[in-house]
Design goal:
75 residues, Flavocytochrome B2, Chain A, domain 1, 27% strand
Length: 75
C-alpha cells in the first residue's frame, strides 16, 4: 500500500486539487464521492488532515469510513 506524508495528504483538501482525502488511524480514505465533504469541509472538519482525534466529537462511529476507498497509509 502506498504511503503518503502529512504534506501530501494536506494537498488533497478539496481546495488545491480535486481529490478530497482524510486520514483515520493511519489509513487515508478518499471521501471525494461524498456530498457531505463538498469543497473539502464536513461540518467543522476539514479534509487533507488526520481526523483520528476529531472522531470522538462526531455523531457517528468510525464505521462511516467503510463507505470509502482506502488510498494508502499515512507516514
Amino acid at each position: 500500500m502506498k504511503e503518503y506524508t502529512r504534506a501530501q495528504l494536506a494537498l488533497r483538501n478539496g481546495q488545491d486539487r480535486e481529490e478530497i482525502w482524510c486520514a483515520y488511524q493511519g489509513l487515508i480514505y478518499d471521501v471525494s464521492p461524498s456530498r457531505l465533504w463538498k469543497n473539502g469541509k464536513h461540518y467543522e472538519h476539514w479534509a487533507g488532515q488526520d481526523l483520528t482525534q476529531e472522531l470522538s466529537a462526531a455523531p457517528h462511529t468510525d464505521g462511516v469510513f467503510s463507505r470509502f476507498i482506502i488510498i494508502g497509509k499515512l507516514k
